[in-house]
Design a protein that fits this description.
Blueprint (H helix, E strand, L loop, with lengths): L1 H21 L7 E4 L9 E7 L8 E6 L12 E2 L2 H5 L9 E8 L9 E6 L5 E6 L2 E2 L11 E4 L11 E8 L5 H7 L5 E2 L7 E6 L3 E9 L4 E9 L5 E8 L5 E9 L5 E7 L14 E9 L2 E10 L4 E4 L3 E4 L2 E3 L1 E6 L12 H13 L4 E4 L6 H10 L2 E6 L8 H15 L5 E8 L11 H4 L6 E4 L10 E2 L6 H8 L4 E2 L17 H10 L5 E4 L7 E2 L7 E2 L18 H9 L3 E4 L13 H5 L27 E6 L10 E9 L9 E9 L9 E5 L11 E7 L5 E8 L19 E4 L3 E6 L2 E6 L5 E5 L9 E6 L4 E11 L2 E10 L1 E9 L4 E13 L2 E6 L5 E10 L12 E8 L17 E3 L4 E6 L2 E6 L6 E4 L19 E6 L5 E3 L2 E3 L12 E15 L21
Parallel strand pairs: 23-24, 23-30, 24-25, 25-26, 26-27, 28-29
Antiparallel strand pairs: 1-12, 2-3, 2-5, 4-11, 5-10, 6-9, 6-12, 7-8, 7-10, 13-14, 14-17, 15-16, 15-18, 18-19, 20-21, 21-22, 31-32, 33-34, 34-37, 35-36, 35-38, 38-39, 40-41, 41-42, 42-43, 44-49, 45-46, 46-47, 47-48, 48-59, 49-56, 50-51, 50-53, 52-55, 53-54, 54-59, 55-56, 57-58
Helix pairs in contact: 4-5, 8-9
């Protein structure tokens, strides 16, 4: 019986297989690329440039490309008309392309279209000497021509001739696309391809798939010769058919709509980017005529006026950035790798949204936003001037028809900052079956549309006022990221407003990348057009600035804090901070710039309070890992830390937007380690954020490093200097100023550290020095009149020098502490235990982790070549020890006290005639308070940091501060075993 059943089943399988094979395959669209597919895969076409470089003769060019990046024509930045005035003329050369191609034999009975995915700007296309159609005007839009009747028989050569005019003949196109704050190019910068379809086919689909499973599909048909069945199958991620919609089209029809409902679909959001496919088939007489597929997601977008932006019935807040399509070597010609890199970088910052500034992107970028999960604001070009209705209407059609089925797109944006033609507002819905909202991105009040105000570059207090009004507020640009300003500087306070305000829609920082172009006419330098284009949190090649990591922490959808520790809430603003444009306020609750909590309480029981800021994910879908680590020390071969033990924590059930507790099952001896690290990962196993806390007081970090041992200290006293010497180290004081002088390290050579102590805020008049011996060393006391209350030096027999000091502060101050000097040009690098590896500001303390870091010297100015990050110079937080490596040897500075900032050398946050903010005296400073940073837009520095919120006010300081520093000038002994060399008795290199 078993054998009989087996044979029957086998026969049935065979019959089914044969039947399946007998079904004719449905004809589909066939594609032949005439150009390459991206910047890394190009095809050479014949090329003639009419002006500028390499002009006046035929040669070849890579397609796709911007021709300036291939060495042709001339460069322009879009604001050159403003920079150079009324006599300026844009470069207006043409590019003439020729390319020969052949069509396959099986295309003889097909209709053939030539498709240009993007060409700057006016594009005339001829095939075999015949115009393919009207000249296309508009650079960033996909367009096509039916060239079936212009092709020669299969196998015979066809000549494609394309003339591209960099400047459009339509003034409004130039106004919208080229009079703009970005680089403007010429050329066929996106791929060119042929598409061949049968005579009866589907040119496009428009989908409306709702969160409740309702599915509507507009199927556009062409060439039907009989009544035709239209069937749309809906397939899930595993390829299973979960729904089917059917309809019938008559020969005269060009559109048929089919509908169905899918039960309990997996909904698309940026956190849960579940995708489906619809496979649409045309059939007649049981035979398939044509088949096509489209990817989509089930989701519903709503603007609930006066309430907020809702996705699938849940209010969402967009954490976004503005992204230009950009790569330095190739301009606006990109690749799949660049698109993927940008999506990953945006998500790494814990953002959930991106605005396409200021034009539609490549199709591939939107596909990645669909699959990886980013909300998108897709924008019609129009920087500050709009297309005419005649020019803009076909471009709206091309943009929406191409992009309408991407579930990632939440809104259409009709231009930017005044580049809105309101006559085009209702055009978007003509091609978008889901009727997405249209917004007006604007930099001036009073331009709200569809209940959303998008006004740009509001400060903390104006943001607060707008959020209290009746409109939804979603700035499409804020905190301009020029130099080191904007970005995350001030973001904590402003984002707290948005997060807590019921009518906030979130917002978009400006911008993702510094738009620096590799100039083929200037020896390959990277040009950001001065102050115009370096306004990203990433460099041109995606080098990460400090704001990148700070944004990541502030935007983290998982917030963690230790119970009993102060929450990172916005400080209470002072009245003067709200009203004054001149200076920071006084008399407020705000204090000095304090780093995030760094130390676990002694009675820590492994409980971490967590807040879930996801809109849709439960924290049970994430996972958490802890590590106990020891930090590496100054003499170690490497920086970083050593992991002693690690473990997984059970993910708690914490609903979206709720709070809960995470239990870490730590070993009983957890305090024997230096620090606890906690890492949170999302549902796709991507790191969300990693927090680090010391397991004990900061002074423990100096165990085994600072050795305050007794021993002989030699004293030399003259009328002008006082000198101490121990363990081969010499330290002197000027008796007239109290400042260090005449230092020598234990290598026997001069060490140029000195010029202090200088009190960086307040008055301090030196009055005199005294010294006396103690059992374990020699004490030097300096007396000052004014705010420097006490300065006590002590040199131990081990060579360590201790400095205890106390100073008074009173008022609103940018910084507080002591300063010294050291020649910056002698510095090779630094290693430190503290927060890093990036520098901080008072209003940007985030994104830096506690660890042992090392950085070679660089002279990077943020946002400028050569984009070497992290910057070596700046304010560095929560320092336990710092070892400076110089051409004169090494020296170490350490503190047993928490909260020390070290200022390394001269730098600026914002460049200008007067760089902002001013620096303390000296160039090597040990501080208890550091300044906030303002913002800059082009030439305009906004130094009124208090307007950015309480955290951006100056430090409101009262009372006295005490601190201890330890210095060691040289290398401590590492081993008693000699090495096989003999040092010269005298070395006169210096």
């Amino acid at each position: 019986m078993f054998l009989f059943l087996t044979r029957c089943l086998g026969a049935l399988w065979l019959l089914g297989s044969l039947a399946a094979r007998a079904q004719p395959a449905a004809p589909t669209k066939q594609t032949l690329y005439l150009s390459g597919r991206d910047k890394d895969r190009t095809v050479a076409w014949d090329f003639y440039c009419t002006g500028g470089r390499q002009s006046g003769y035929w040669t070849t060019i890579a397609v796709p490309s911007c021709w300036e990046q291939q060495g042709f024509g001339s460069y322009n930045y879009g604001r050159d008309y403003k920079t150079y005035g009324k006599n300026f003329r844009f470069a207006d050369e043409q590019g003439r392309y020729r390319h020969e191609f052949r069509t396959p034999a099986d295309w003889q009975q097909r209709r053939v279209f030539i498709v240009f995915e993007g060409s700057m700007t006016d594009t005339e296309v001829k095939v075999n000497g015949q115009l393919a159609g009207p000249i296309h005007q508009g650079a960033f839009y996909e367009f096509r021509y039916d060239i079936t009747d212009k092709l020669r028989p299969a196998g015979q050569p066809n000549l494609l001739e394309v003339t591209v005019s960099k400047m459009s003949a339509d003034k409004s196109v130039n106004n919208a696309e080229r009079l703009a704050d970005y680089w403007v190019f010429g050329g066929i910068f996106r791929p060119v391809k042929l598409e061949a379809v049968p005579q009866q086919f589907i040119p496009r689909l428009a989908i409306d798939a709702r969160a409740d499973g309702a599915f509507a599909l507009n199927v556009f048909v062409r060439g039907l010769q009989q009544a035709t069945e239209v069937q749309a199958d809906i397939l899930d991620a595993d390829g299973r058919v979960v729904g089917t919609a059917r309809g019938t089209a008559q020969p005269a029809d060009t559109l048929v709509q089919v509908q169905t409902r899918v039960r309990q679909p997996r909904r698309w959001t940026s956190e849960t980017p579940h995708l489906y496919r619809t496979r649409v088939t045309l059939r007649a007489g049981g035979q398939p005529l044509y088949q096509t597929e489209e990817r989509f997601g089930f989701r519903t977008i709503e603007i609930r006026r006066g309430r907020g932006i809702f996705v699938n019935g849940t209010q969402v807040k967009l954490k976004g950035t503005n992204r230009h399509s950009w790569w330095p070597e190739t301009g606006r010609t990109l690749s799949d790798a660049v698109h993927l890199q940008d999506v990953r970088l945006i998500k790494e910052m814990n953002m959930n949204a991106v605005r396409m500034s200021h034009y539609p992107p490549d199709r591939r970028f939107l596909e990645l936003c669909d699959s990886l999960g980013l909300y998108v604001l897709d924008e019609l070009a129009g920087w500050q001037k709009a297309y005419s209705t005649a020019a803009g209407a076909p471009l709206v059609r091309e943009m929406v028809q191409r992009d309408c089925n991407h579930p990632s797109i939440l809104f259409w944006s009709n231009g930017n900052e005044g580049g809105t033609n309101k006559e085009l507002d209702d055009d978007f819905a003509q091609y978008d079956l889901s009727k997405r909202p249209v917004i007006h991105a604007h930099h001036r009040p009073g331009n709200q549309h569809n209940g959303i105000d998008t006004n740009h570059y509001e400060n903390f207090y104006s943001t607060q006022k707008i959020l209290a009004d009746s409109l939804i507020y979603m700035p499409t640009e804020f905190l301009h990221c020029q130099d080191d300003g904007g970005g995350a500087a001030g973001l904590q306070d402003i984002w707290a407003l948005h997060w807590q305000a019921p009518r906030s829609g979130g917002g978009f920082l400006w911008a993702l990348v510094d738009e620096g172009v590799v100039r083929t006419d200037q020896r390959g330098i990277i040009d950001v057009n001065g102050v115009n284009a370096p306004d990203g949190v990433l460099g041109p090649h995606r080098e990460k600035e400090g704001s990148f990591y700070a944004i990541r922490e502030i935007f983290s959808p998982i917030q963690a804090r230790i119970p009993g520790a102060p929450a990172k809430a916005a400080q209470k603003p002072s009245k003067r901070g709200q009203a004054s444009a001149a200076s920071a306020p006084s008399g407020a609750a705000a204090t000095s710039s304090a780093p995030p909590l760094a130390e676990l309480p002694a009675d820590f029981k492994g409980i971490v309070e967590v807040e879930n800021r996801y809109h849709f994910l439960n924290l049970s879908q994430c996972f958490f890992q802890w590590e106990l680590v020891n930090f590496r020390k100054p003499g170690d071969a490497f920086s970083g830390h050593v992991t002693l033990q690690r473990g997984r924590a059970a993910s708690p059930e914490v609903a979206p937007l709720a709070k809960g507790r995470l239990q870490l099952d730590l070993p009983k001896d957890w305090q024997r380690s230096d620090a606890l690290q906690l890492a949170a990962f999302d549902a796709q196993k991507n790191l969300v954020y990693r927090w680090t806390w010391r397991t004990g007081p900061a002074r423990r970090a100096l165990d085994g490093i600072v050795t305050l041992a007794a021993g002989p200290v030699e004293t030399t006293d003259t009328d002008s200097t006082l000198t101490l010497k121990a363990a081969g180290i010499t330290v002197g004081w000027n008796r007239h100023t109290g400042r260090l002088t005449g230092l020598k390290g234990n290598n026997g050579d001069k060490l140029s550290f000195g010029g202090g102590p200088l009190l960086v805020s307040g008055a301090a008049a030196f009055e005199g020095l005294t010294h006396h011996a103690e059992p374990d060393g020699e004490v030097v006391e300096a007396r000052y009149r004014g705010d420097l209350r006490a300065v006590r030096w002590k040199m131990y027999g081990s060579g360590w020098l201790q400095l205890d000091y106390e100073y008074a502060t009173e008022g609103d101050l940018p910084f507080a502490g002591l300063s010294f000097r050291y020649p910056e040009n002698y510095v090779l690098g630094a290693r430190w235990l503290g927060r890093g590896p990036y520098r901080v500001w008072k209003n940007r303390p985030h994104g830096v982790a506690l660890d042992t870091w090392e950085n070679a010297y660089n002279n990077t100015q943020t946002g400028a070549a050569p984009w070497i990050y992290p910057e070596f110079k700046g304010y560095f937080a929560d320092i336990s020890w710092l070892e400076l490596n110089t051409v004169e040897g090494k020296f170490l500075v350490a503190t047993p006290d928490a909260g020390l900032y070290v200022r390394l050398f001269d730098f600026y946050g914002l460049s200008g005639v007067q760089p902002h903010p001013p620096l303390p005296a000296g160039n090597l400073s040990f501080l208890d308070a550091i300044p906030p940073l303002g913002t800059k837009l082009a030439l305009n520095i906004d130094a009124n940091t208090a307007a950015l919120g309480p955290q951006s006010e100056l430090n409101h300081l009262r009372g006295t501060r005490r601190r201890t520093l330890y210095f060691f000038f040289g290398l401590p002994p590492a081993s008693s075993t000699p090495q096989p060399y003999t040092a010269p008795a005298k070395d006169d290199l210096f």
